[in-house]
């Protein structure tokens, strides 16, 4: 996707305005995002630049620093410039209460909120409107920019005090019940402010969208998601370049169906396109369309750290870990001092067991800023890889002390507590992770594993199903569901779940609604022998011997890649594949197969015993001989060989 010179100039100007406006309101993360995207936009060639600039209206003042287009707002901003500069300086110095008091002193707020108690008119109220407030109770004549700054300072002040009042992470009194006491003040103020604007729309200046964003953000914190979404949608229509507002909307979307439902109601511009791609990645979507969308955006912003991170996370969710690692490595080369999302990079290095790279990353993060949550998570992952689990927990706690909403730290701390056999702490960590983000399938899966360790299979099943609902194409999720059902004695349902696990990774889109027989599944080139063995075992418990035999044969066939026509597989040089090699082969779909595994040996033993029951002594002898060659269950295999040969000799004597 390419842009014309004129479109590139328009986009550049819009991002410049976004960075300035967000910075003026102390929305630092949104301003940083816009500035980084602006920096990734290639310069327009000089020849095209002159032609495009000549077709655009000229101005002595850059649009990013031009006065407000609304004359009423412009007059107010000019009048209160000295106070605004004072308030912004206080905010930058983290003196949030002083910042808010510049425009909204406590005495003024007390009078307004006491008037609100007698006024039933609000966007959420159901009563009839009362008389308009008196002059003493009316809002101060300040600009929307200054009002936003004062109220936003109130919210941040409340968050700061909430963190100060909270107990030690995972301490005995850390119940997560401490609330931001300023939310009620800001909510009441904005309710009345928005109601007054709605009643006197023609007399007031146009809304800029930032106060709607603030109200939506506060409603999200109060768990009023449906009303919050309405105001956040209004905000992106009024000012679509506030990335923080888009993120708040994304956090309210739990399913891709919900994303598709609201997509037509969003402003149709490049911000909506970026939002859709980013939200789809966060919802663990995958496919060529999403990859093409990200590539189109990277065509416009080739060096965007945000978009490269999205591409890396897409590969990570698709389990293409090598591609994801390469993307993060390129990102680190482009932006060596950027710490954002490096916790995900450390997860990838951990799974790939790249200890030298993880050690380098931990050292780099520590040298840049050791008190960033991302740095603490990276260092914690490094200690976890070294099996220093207590040290890892210490760093994950430190990350959470710095930011209690750090999702990676909660989830990874749960993993560490599982390793330390502290199931109570693991469950609490996973629950906190789910509270932060209900779309985190790893936390749901971790809860399922922990309850399974406690042999509380009904609870484990419920959590596994939540994880599978978030990752329906991930065979590992369905395998956990199937195994849990098997332990509960629900073999028929367990078989369905495990068949779905077999089909999930590569055939989910076409086969998720039906589960074929063994013959239908046989068309897949490579499958997990452990899953096949579980299915066969459950069929055996259901006394469906033909299906059990078919899946046992499929299990044995995986040793050579699942391409054999029958279980009559003779191996010249049998060998045992490592777990990593088996996993790689399974993901590759075919090839050299898994080699001999515990699962295939158990399946071969079952087939040998089945052959003995059906008096197929030649097959039983061959399978038992192969078991001896494999070095698995040798004594039992030798006993089967002796019995099979004696039966064959007896049969030959009878024939004579």
Automatic annotation (TrEMBL):
Keyword Repeat: yes
GO process terms (BP): anaphase-promoting complex-dependent catabolic process; cell division; positive regulation of mitotic metaphase/anaphase transition; protein ubiquitination
Top-rank taxon: Eukaryota
Keyword Cell division: yes
Keywords: Cell cycle, Cell division, Mitosis, Repeat, TPR repeat, Ubl conjugation pathway
TPR repeat extents: 373-406, 407-440, 441-474
Pfam families xrefs: ANAPC8, TPR_11, TPR_8
Name by which UniProt lists this protein: Anaphase promoting complex subunit 8
Naturally occurring in which organism (per UniProt): Lasiosphaeria ovina
Lineage of the organism: Eukaryota, Fungi, Dikarya, Ascomycota, Pezizomycotina
């Amino acid at each position: 996707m390419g842009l014309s010179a004129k479109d590139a100039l328009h986009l550049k100007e819009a991002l410049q305005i976004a960075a300035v406006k967000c910075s003026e309101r102390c929305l630092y993360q949104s301003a940083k995002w816009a500035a980084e995207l602006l920096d990734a936009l290639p310069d327009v060639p000089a020849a095209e630049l002159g032609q495009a600039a000549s077709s655009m209206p000229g101005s002595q003042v850059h649009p990013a620093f031009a006065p407000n287009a609304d004359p009423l707002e412009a007059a107010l901003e000019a009048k209160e410039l000295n106070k605004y500069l004072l308030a912004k300086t206080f905010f930058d110095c983290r003196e949030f209460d002083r910042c808010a008091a510049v425009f909204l002193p406590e005495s003024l707020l007390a009078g307004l909120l006491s008037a609100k108690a007698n006024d039933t008119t609000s966007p959420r109220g159901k009563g009839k409107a009362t008389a308009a407030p008196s002059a003493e109770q009316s809002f101060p004549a300040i600009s929307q920019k200054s009002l936003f700054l004062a109220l936003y300072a109130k919210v941040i002040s409340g968050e700061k005090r909430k963190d100060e009042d909270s107990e030690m992470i995972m301490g005995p009194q850390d119940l997560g019940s401490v609330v931001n006491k300023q939310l009620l003040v800001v909510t009441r103020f904005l309710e009345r402010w928005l109601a007054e604007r709605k009643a006197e729309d023609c007399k007031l200046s146009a809304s800029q969208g930032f106060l709607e964003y603030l109200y939506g953000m506060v409603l999200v914190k109060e768990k009023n998601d449906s009303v919050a979404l309405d105001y956040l949608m209004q905000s992106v229509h009024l000012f679509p370049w506030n990335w923080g507002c888009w993120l708040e909307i994304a956090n309210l979307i739990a399913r891709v169906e919900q994303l598709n439902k609201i997509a037509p109601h969003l402003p149709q511009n490049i911000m909506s396109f970026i939002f859709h791609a980013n939200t789809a990645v966060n919802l663990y979507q995958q496919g060529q369309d999403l990859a093409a969308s990200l590539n189109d955006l990277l065509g416009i912003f080739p060096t965007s750290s945000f978009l490269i991170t999205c591409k890396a996370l897409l590969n990570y969710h698709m389990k293409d870990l090598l591609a994801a690692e390469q993307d993060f490595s390129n990102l680190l080369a482009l932006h060596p001092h950027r710490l954002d999302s490096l916790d995900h990079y450390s997860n990838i290095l951990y799974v790939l067991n790249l200890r030298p790279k993880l050690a380098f990353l931990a050292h780099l993060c520590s040298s840049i800023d050791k008190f960033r949550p991302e740095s603490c998570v990276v260092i914690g992952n490094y200690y976890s890889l070294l099996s220093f689990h207590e040290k890892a927990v210490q760093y994950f706690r430190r990350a959470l002390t710095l930011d209690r909403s750090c999702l990676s730290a909660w989830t990874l701390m749960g993993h560490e507590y599982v390793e330390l056999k502290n199931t109570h702490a693991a469950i609490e960590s996973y629950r906190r992770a789910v509270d932060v983000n209900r779309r985190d399938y790893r936390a749901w899966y971790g809860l399922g594993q922990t309850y399974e360790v406690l042999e509380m299979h009904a609870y484990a099943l419920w959590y596994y199903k939540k994880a599978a609902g978030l990752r329906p194409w991930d065979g590992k999720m369905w395998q956990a569901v199937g195994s849990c059902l098997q332990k509960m004695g629900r073999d028929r349902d367990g078989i369905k779940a495990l068949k779905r696990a077999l089909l999930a990774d590569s055939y989910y889109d076409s086969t998720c609604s039906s589960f074929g027989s063994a013959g239908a599944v046989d068309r897949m080139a490579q499958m997990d022998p452990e899953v096949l063995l579980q299915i066969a075992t459950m069929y055996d418990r259901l006394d469906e011997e033909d299906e059990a035999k078919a899946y046992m044969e499929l299990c044995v066939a995986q040793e050579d890649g699942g391409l054999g026509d029958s279980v009559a597989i003779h191996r010249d040089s049998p060998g045992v594949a490592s777990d990593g090699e088996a996993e790689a082969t399974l993901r590759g779909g075919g090839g050299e197969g898994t080699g001999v595994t515990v699962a295939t040996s158990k399946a071969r033993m079952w087939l040998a015993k089945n052959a003995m029951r059906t008096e197929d002594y030649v097959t039983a002898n061959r399978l038992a001989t192969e078991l001896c060659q494999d070095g698995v269950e040798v004594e039992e295999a030798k006993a089967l060989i002796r019995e099979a040969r004696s039966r064959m000799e007896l049969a030959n004597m009878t024939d004579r």
